[in-house]
Please model this.
Amino acid sequence: MDNNNTIRCGWVNNEPIYIEYHDNEWGNPQYNDRKLFELLNLEGAQAGLSWITILKKRENYRLAFDNFDPYKIAQYDENKITELLATAGIIRNRLKIQAVVTNAQAYIKICERYNSFSDYMWQFVNNTPIQNQWKTFSEVPTQTEISQIMAKTLKKDGFKFVGNTICYAFMQAVGMVNDHIIDCFCHKLHT
Model:
């Protein structure tokens, strides 16, 4: 809770960037193709780290990766990857950086097969956010059968760093599931 007694989900600490993210972004249904692509890759970058680490670096990622334009990223060569490995302000892990390039290439193929990347991603929840009714943060799962299906499908379609837990965190972030606890003021905003 903050000074005005606003109840939030248990994972939110008192850092303004976290409060802003929780209150205005996390769990809001997102349908913008590029935004979905960005969040999928940021969730992958987070693997093994805390989300706040990535959140604090998000603007650096946007600058480094051409504002997550998949058509530009798909053209990155070894020189660009080497440049990114030397870029301060992002996670300088070769596999994670290469994954963004690979994911951009997979994204383009998906957009050729589907109307949009959004249509492709939202198919996993039948285009309707799942409304959960968790009383405590400890009840919230880290993966589900749907996130497992999503992870397998994304991997089959060429995406990297898209495991079951990453996919569920992505689903939470983009509002495919409403995992705000029921006492959180945001829960009712997304029902």
In short: Residues 16-190 form a domain with the Endonuclease III; domain 1 fold (CATH 1.10.340.30). The mean pLDDT is 95.
